[in-house]
Amino acid sequence: MKKRLFQLVCLLLVAGLTWAQNVTVTGKVTDEAGNPLASASVQIKKTRSGTTTDAQGNFSLNAAPGTVLVVSAVGYEAKEFSASANRATISLAADTRSLSEVVVTGFGGAQIKKDLTGNIARVKGKDIEFMPTPSVDAALQGKAAGVFVNSQSGKLGQAVTVRVRGNSSISANSQPLYVLDGVPITTDDQSRYGGDMNPLTDINPNDIESIEVLKDASAGAIYGSRAANGVVLITTKRGKAGKTSVSFNFQTGYSEATKRLDMLNSEEYAELILEGAAYRDNLSGTPLTSPSSWTTYVKDDVMDYFSYGQWSADPRKSYDWQDAVFQKGPYRQADLQLRGGSANTKFFSSFQHLEQTGTIIGNDLVRSTGRLNIDQKANEWLDLGVSLSLSRTYNRRLPDDNAFSNPLQAIALMPMTPFLDPNTGLDAGTPPGDVNIPLYYNPLLTVKYAKFTQDVYRTFGNTYFKAKLAPGLIFQTEFGLDFLSQNEEGYFQSQTVRNQTRAVRGVGSNSGTFVTNYNTNSYFTYTKVKGDHNLNATLGMQYQQSQAKYNFTEGTDFPSNSYQKIASAATKSGGSSSQTDFRFLSYFLRANYILKENYILSASGRIDASSRFGKNARQGFFPAVSAGWILSNEGFMSKLSQISFLKLRTSYGIVGNAEIGNFPQLGLFAGDAGYAGAAGQRPSQLSNPDLQWERTAQLDAGIDYGLFNNRITGEIDYYIKKTDGLLLNVNIPATTGFNSQVRNVGKLENRGWEFVLNTQNLVGAFKWSTNINLAFNRGKVTDIQGQIINGGVSSMNRVEQGYNVGVFYTPEYAGVDPANGNALFYKNVKLANGTIDRTTTSNYAEAQRVVVGDPNPDMIFGFTNNFSYKSFDMTIFFNGVQGNQNNIYGMGRYSSASMLYEDNNTADQLRRWRKPGDITDIPQVRLYRVNGSQASSRYIVDGSYVRLRTLSLGYTLNSKQLAKLKMEKLRVYVSGQNLLTFTKYPYWDPEVNADTFDSNIAKGNDFYTPPQPRTILVGVNVNF
Amino acid sequence: MKLLKSIVANSSLLLALTSVTITGCEKRLDIAPYQSIAEDLALNTEGDVLVTLVGCYDGIQSAATLGGEIMVLNDLIGNSTNINFTGTFAGLNDAWNGLMVSNNSFAASTWSSSYNTINRCNNVLSAVDKVTSSVAKKNSVEGEALFIRATLYFELVRLFAKAVGDGDANANPGVPLVLTPTRGVTEADYKPRSSVQAVYTQIVTDLTRAESILPSSNGFYANKWAAAAMLARVQLMQKNFAAARDAANRVIAGSGRSLNTDFTRLWYTMINNGGVMPTEYLFGVKVTTQDGTNAINTYFGRTITPGTAGRSDCKIRPAHVALYEAGDRRNFFVLSGGSFYTQKHLDRFGDVPVIRLAEMFLTRAECNFRSSTTVGATPLADVNTIRTRAGLAPLTTLTLNDITRERFLELAFEGHNLPEAKRLQTNVGSFAWNSPKLIMPIPQREMDVNKQLVQNEGY
Questions:
Q1: pLDDT tens digits for A254-312?
Q2: Coil, strand or helix: which one is A635?
C-alpha cells in the first residue's frame, strides 16, 4: 500500500513538473514613443513573483507558457500579456487616471497616489499651461480642492492671496511655502512702489511638470515650522530619453476690464450736489443766491470752475472718466521647448517671451525666461544633475489703490470736467493750464509724464548628486540658490507736481534689491521590499540662509524733463541702504511602511531652529503620523465589482508657522529718527525672548475611491486644523510708547470638507471628462484673550473671538428714516435682560459695532469639463467662491455716499431720499455733512461669484495632414479667460482686495481697485 | 569590491561633510538686525543719549503731533466758522462738523504718536546721568526732553480733556501720565487718566525746571525762552495771569529776540528764506526737503506757485477775510479757484511755527490788563507793537476785547482757536465753549486695550 502510494506521489510530482515546465520570458518595456521604461514591474498575475526592468527597459523571468503576466510602471496603464518564449515588446500608455499618478512629497520623495496617506493635491503642468496668468499661484485658482486663490487686482504681476484650508494665522504670513525643485524660494514682495508684487511671476508656468500642494500635517510635517499654511512643491520638467522633441507655441490676443460702473452724468451730478448745497443753506438760513451760500459755491467754485466754465454754457456735456483710464491691452506670448536625451544624459530646455499690456492705462509686463535642466547618469552608482533658470521681468507699475494717481481714482472726478483743458488742448490739469483742475489730481498726468518701472533679474539654480551607497540606500545632496536682483526706477516730471509735490523740477529715484537665498538639502533614502513588506525611509538635514540688501537713491532739481537719471539731479534728495537676514537649520525624518499592499503606515518629523525666534525657544519638533487601508484589495470587497478602489486614510501631526518677519523677538532701538540733519534713534520694538513659532495641529480623515474600473475616482476629506500660540501683534496701551508687542497668544481653528470627483463621462470617439473640486471651510478664532486686532479700510476688518479672521465689524445700517431722510443704524446694544436692542438711531455714535460680514468664503469650487471629438478639443472651466462679503467702503464713502463730497457718485445714489414719505435705502444729500456714509454694513456687500474662468477650443491636425507639413503635431486654438462672471457685487469685480490695505486680516476690501481682465487669445502649437 | 570600497569612502566623506556643516550652522543662527540695535546697547554713553534726544525732536516732527495735525485739529474743531473744510478725510470732516466718533483716526494717531514721543523723552530722562562732558550739556539735554514732554502733555490734555474752568480740574480726568521709559508691559502700564490738575501740575513742574536749566541759545532746538514761552501759554490757559505775564515778560526781556519787521516774511520759510527759521519763532518744527512733513500745509495748502503744495482742504471763508482792517498785512490770503487760502501754510517745506514772540506780547498785554499791572510795558504799548508791525495805526484806548481780537487775527490758523475759545469761554459756532463735542474722544483702540480708561462724555 505504502509503495503504491509513493508511486502515485512520484507520478503526480512528475506530472506536476511536466505541467509546470517553465520558459524564459524576455522582453522590453517602453512608453508609447518607444523610449525604454526602467524599473517597470513584470509580475505573474495574482502572485507576488516577478521582476523589474533594467535601465534599458529589458526584463527576463521564468514563467510557464501562457501564464498571464502583468506589466506595470508608475504613471502608466498596466498591460497584460501571456508568457511565451518569444521576445516581447510591450509599450505602455501613459495613465491619465489620478490613482496611479506619482505624487511628489518633498526631499526626493515620490509616492503613487493610491499609496498616499497624507493629503496632497496635484495639479499637472498641462492643466495650467498657456493660461494668460503670468504667475503660477494665480493659475492654481479652482484647480485644487481647499486651495483658495484671490488675484486681488487687475494690475499686472501683483501679489495674489493663496490660502490652503483657511487662514491659519492672524499676524503671521498665511501664504503657503513655495518650494521650487527643492529650494524654498523668495515669495515676499520686494517692491518699494505701489502694491505688493508677486515674485512668483519670475517663474515660467509652462516649465512646470507638476504642482503638489501639501495640505495636511502628515504631508507637511517634513517642512516643520514652515508648513502650517500648506506647502506648494513646484517641480519643473526634466528631459526624457529618446528623440528630441521641439515644441513651439505662440498666442496672441487682448485683455479688457471685466466691467464698467454706472456713474452719474453731469445733469444728475448737478441735481444731487445742488440738492445737498440747498440743504446746507436752508440749515443755516442762507439765501441760495447769496454769494456766501453753499449753492453759489457749488455752482461757481465747483461745477463751473472744474469744467473750465463749460458747465454753465452746456450743463448736459458729460464725460465718463472710465473711458479715459480703461483700455484694450494686447497680449503676446511665444514659448519654445526642447526635450530629449539619451539613456545617460537627458535635458529639458525652454525659452519664453511674454508681452502683456494692462487693462488700465500705464501698466505693462514683459517677461523673458530661459531654462535648462540636465540629468546625467555618471556611472552605476552616481546620478547628478543641474537646473538653471534665468528670467527678466519688466513691469511698468501702477501706483497703489489709495493714490490720487491710481488711474481708477479718475472715477471720482466730476462728469462735467472735460478730459482736455480747452485753453491748452492738454490733459486737464497739465501746466501751464490750471493745475488745480480737476477736483483731484488727474491720474492721466502720471501715465503721460511719469514712469515707475521694475526690472527683476531672477536666477533659480540647483545641482544635485545622488549616490547609490548600497542596495536600497541612496544619499542625495542638493545645493540650490534663488537670486533675486531688482532695479526700480521712477521719474516724475514737473507736470505731476500736484501729486508729487517734490517734482517741482522733476524727481527721480533708483533703487536696487538683492535677495540671495541659499539652500542645501542632504538626505539618505532607504528602500526595502521584502515579501509583503515595503519600507521607505528618509533622513536628512536642510539649511537655508537668506540675505536681502536694499539701496535707494533719489534726486530732485533736474535741468529739464529730458534729463531723467539721477546723474543730472542738482539735489540728491534721498538715499538709503539696508539689510535683513534670516536662517533656518532643520533635521527631518520620514518613513513609509506598506504591508501586503493594503496597510500603509507613515511617520515623519522635523526639528527646526531659526534665527527668528527668542533665545528661550529656538528649536521646535514637528511630528506627524498617518495610516491608510486599501479596502478594495481585501477579499471581502472583491464581490463589489463596481468599486474598483477604496482607501481609508487618516493623519495627525503638528506643523508650525515662522513667518513673522525677521527679529520680532528682540527689544530694539532704530536709528531712523534723525531731525533736520542730525542723526537720531528711537525705541522701536519691545522684546520677547520667549517668542516661538505658531503650532498647528491637524487631523485629517479621508476616503479615496474609484468606481467602475476607475472611470469615476475621487476623494473625500474632513479636517480639523487647530492653531495655538498665535504670533500676534498684541495691542498694548499706546501710552507705553508702543502700539503692539509680538507674543504667542491665542488660538484659532479651521474645519472643513473637501470633495474631489473625476469622471470620464464618455470614452470613445467623443470623449468627455469632468473634474470637480469642492471645499467647505469654517474658520473660527477660539481665543484671543481680549485682544483687539483691526485692519483694512477704516479698520473694519477685525479679529473677533468666535468668528473667522478678518470679519467685518461695524455698525449695522438700518436704512433711511422716511420722515426726514436721516440714515439710521441699529443700536444693537446688549440690554440688561440679555437681549439686543434692535431699535434704530440716527446718532451713529449710539450704534454698537457688530459682526456684519466675513471676507473668507464658506465654499470654493472648480468645475472643469474637457471634451474631444476627432480633431477638436474643448475645455470649459468654471470656478467660484460663495458665502463671502466684500467691503466697498473705501470707495463707497466718497462715491456711494449721497454726494457728501464733490466726488462723482455711482448712479444708484439717484435713489436718495427727497421728501417726507420717501421709502429708499439712500439717505438725503447733505453736502459736507455726513449722513449715512459712515462705516457701516451699508458698504458690506455679497462677494460671491461664479466665473467662467477658461473656455478654450482647439483643433489638432491629423497625422495625414501633418505628414505633408513634416510636423509631429499642430494645434490651433482660441481661449477666453473670465468671459462670464455671475455675481451680485455692485462694483467692478468681486475677486478683489485693495493692495494698500492688504494684510492677513484685511481681506475683501475694494478701494478703486482695478478689476480682473477678460482675455481672449488665439494660439498655435507646433511640435517637430 | 573596489566599487564597494569607493562607495563606503564616499559616503563617509559625505557624512563628515554633513556633520561639519551642521556644527557650523548652529552658530550661524545668531544673527542681528542691521538697521536696529538691541535696547541694552542703545543708552550707554553720552553719544547714545544725545542721539535719543534727537529722536525726541523727530517725534514732534511727526505729522500727527507738532508736524501740524495738532494745530489743524485745534483749528478745525475750534475755528470751524472761519473755515470751509472740503476735504475727504472723514476724521477731519467730523472734527470740523463737531461730529467726531470714538474711532476718529486723527484722535488715534495724535494720541499714539504723542505717547511714542513721550516714551522717547522718558528714555532720555532715564539716562541723563550718562551725559558727563559738562553740567551745561547734561542740563540742556534734560531741559529739552522735559520741554518736549511737557509740550505734548499740554497738547493732549487740551484736546482730550475738559478745559480748566469747566468743572473741577482735580476731579475731571486728564490723560494718563507716564514718566518712565517702557521696557516691558506689566499691569502698571495699564494706566488710568490722571486728573486735569495733576497733568497741569506736571507740565508746570517740567517747564519750570526746563526753563531754569536750558541754555539761552540752542540753535533751532529748544532753549530757555521756548520753555518760558510755553509756560506762559500753560499759565494763561489756567488763568494764572500773573504767572503767565511774568513768563511772557521774561521771554520778551531776556531772549533778545524781536518781532520780524515784515509780517509776510515770517512765512514761506523754505521758498523765501532758504529754510532758515525766523528768529521770531521761539520754537518751531524744522521741515527740510529730506525730513519732516508740514501737516498744516497738507490740509491748508494748495499748489499755486512753485514750492507750494497741499490738498486745498481748508478754504478760508470770505467773512473771515473781511475781518481785517484796510492795510493789515495779516490779511494774508490768496484767492485761487474762487476760494481763499491762508498764505501762512502754502510752503511745502515751510517750518511749522509752534510758538512765536508775537504771542508773548499779546499774553503780557492781556495779563497786565486783567491784573491792572504794567509789568514790562503797558498793555496798550504791547498791543500797538503788534499792530504797528502789521502795518496798522496804533490804538489810543484799549479794551479786553481789543486784545483778544488782535490775538485772534495775529495767530489765526496757527492752531490756537480751540484753546482760545475754551479759555475765553466763547461759543464755537452753535457749540458752547464747554460742549463735549469740542473734546476729542479717547481713541476707541485705547479704550479697547486699557480698561482703566474712562471715555469722554458723548462717545
A1: 999 989 999 999 999 999 999 999 999 999 899 999 988 999 999 999 999 999 999 99
A2: helix
- Report the Cα A476 to chain-centroid distance in Å: 31
DSSP state of A99: G
- Phi, psi for residue B124 in degrees, rounded to 5: -60, -45
Which domain, by its residues, includes A84? Answer: 22-95
Residues of chain B in contact with residue A680, where contact means CB-CB under 8 angstroms, are 51-55, 57-58
Task: Note whether A735 contacts B115, CB cutoff 8 Å.
Answer: yes
The answer to whether residue A72 is domain-embedded is yes
SS (H, E, C) chain B: CHHHHHHHHHHHHHHHHHHHHHHHHHHHCCCCCCCEEEHHHCCCCHHHHHHHHHHHHHHHHCCCCCCCHHHHHHHHHHCHHHEEECCCCHHHHHHHHCCCCCCCHHHHHHHHHHHHHHHHHHHHHHCHHHCCCCHHHHHHHHHHHHHHHHHHHHHHHHHHCCCCCCCCCCCCECCCCCCCCCCCCCHHHCCCCCEHHHHHHHHHHHHHHHHHHCCCCECECCCHHHHHHHHHHHHHHCCCHHHHHHHHHHHHHHCCCCCCCCHHHHCCCCCCCCCCCCCCEEEEECCCCCCCCCHHHHHHCECCCCCECCECCEEECHHHHCCCCCCCCCCCEEEECCEEEEHHHCECCCCEEEEEHHHHHHHHHHHHHHHCCCCCCCHHHHHHHHHHHCCCCCCCCCCHHHHHHHHHHHCCCCCCHHHHHHHHCCCECCECCCCHHHCCCCCHHHHHHCCCCCCCCCC
Whether the CB of A795 is below 8 Å from some CB of chain B: the reply is: yes
User: Is B274 touching A (CB cutoff 8 A)?
Assistant: no
Calculate how close chain B gets to A608, using CA atoms only, in Å. Answer: 11
CATH at A26: 2.60.40.1120
Domain residue spans of chain B: 45-183+192-426
For strands A807-816 and A797-799, give the pairing.
antiparallel
- Collapse the DSSP code of A424 into the 3-class scheme (helix H, G, I; strand E, B; otherwise coil) and give the result: coil
The three three-digit cell numbers of residue A830, written as one number: 446688549
Considering its fold, how many domains does chain A have in total? 1
The confidence score (pLDDT) of residue B15 equals 52
* Nearest CB to A497; choose among B22, B303, B336: B303
Which CATH number is correct for B45-183+192-426, 3.40.50.620, 2.40.160.20, 2.60.40.60, 1.25.40.390?
Answer: 1.25.40.390
Using the Cβ of A680 and the Cβ atoms of chain B, whether some distance falls under 8 Å is answered with yes
For residue A375, is it within any domain?
no
- Report the sign of the C-alpha dihedral through residues A406, A411, A417, A419, in that order: positive
pLDDT tens per residue across span B250-261:
999 999 999 999
- Say if A916 falls within a structural domain: no
CB A682 within 8 A of CB B59: yes
- Partnered with residue A30 across adjacent β-strands are A36, A91
Burial degree of A835 (CB within 10 A; 0-12, 13-18, 19+): exposed
In a domain, A86, yes or no: yes
Q: Please check the confidence at residue A664 and state whether its pLDDT lies above 70.
A: yes
Q: What is the ipTM of this complex?
A: 0.92
pTM of the model: 0.86
Grid cell of A1003 as nine digits: 481681506
Cβ–Cβ under 8 Å, residues A967 and A1024: yes
Cβ atoms of B226 and B255 within 8 Å: the answer is no
Q: A854 and A804 in contact (C-beta within 8 Å)?
A: yes
Which residues lie closer than 8 Å to B87 by C-beta, 6 or more apart? B93, B299, B311, B313, B314
Chain B's closest residue to A542, CA to CA, is B22
C-alpha–C-alpha distance, residues A523 and A604, integer Å: 14
The burial class, CB within 10 Å (0-12 / 13-18 / 19+), for A779 is buried
The grid coordinates listed for A265 are 452724468
